[in-house]
Amino acid sequence: MDQKHRLIYYPDSILRKKTEDIEDITPSFVKFIDKMKQICSEKKGLGIAAPQVNESLSVFVSPMTGTHIKTKDPLYAKDIKDWSVFINPRITKYSKEAVGYEEGCLSLPKLYHTVFRPRSIEVSYLDIELKRHTKVLSHWFARLFLHEYDHLQGILFTDYILGKISNGFDQQNDLEDKMRISQALTAFEKM
């Protein structure tokens, strides 16, 4: 693996940088998408955004392809070539109903905490062929999209817990939660 395209860990500054939109699909960009998928797969992630692989580009990938209508469980691609690729994603609508689930992040290993996010969202994005898609995502797929989209904005899930930013929902964290997360981030900074 080349040294540039590797998993980036907190507190690397690229994780706090807002990404740039992609204008066209080049062979090197397609190769980069493949590298993102490889790293995500090796780390057993549910998704990975370009800043986590050391590029400030507006793209993320995931083995998740949807949400099962009845069970609300995630659906996954059977083959890595069928993974979801989200280029220049936008969120156009948020549901007013929140749901809390435990989240983690490949760039913050072994750190998990509940984050309240919208149950569903309407999104717009381009695929690898620059075809525009507009979809309503719900449950796990919406959560994945929101988490990875945050990476493209320079936001980490811990920002919600610490009250650094708000998504409009009460995160229901007490002082003990905030102290635990702050201590974990400080430990990452000293590594």
State the order of secondary-structure elements, H for helix, E for strand: HEEEEEEEEEHHH
Total discrete domains: 1
Q: Sum up the overall morphology in one term.
A: globular
CATH superfamily: Peptide deformylase
Oligomeric state of the chains present here: single chain
Share in β-strands: 25-35%
Radius of gyration: 16 Å
User: What's the helical proportion of residues?
Assistant: 25-40%
**CATH architecture descriptor text:** Alpha-Beta Complex
Looking across the biggest beta sheet, what order are the strands in? 1-2-5-8-9
Mean pLDDT: 95
> Biggest β-sheet: count, sense, barrel?
5 strands, antiparallel
Number of strands: 9
> In the CATH scheme, what's the topology name?
Peptide Deformylase
Q: Poorly predicted ranges (pLDDT <50, ≥5 residues)?
A: none
Which class do the helix and strand fractions yield?
A: alpha+beta
For the record, what CATH class applies? Alpha Beta
How far do the termini sit from each other? Answer: 23 Å
Separate helix tally: 4
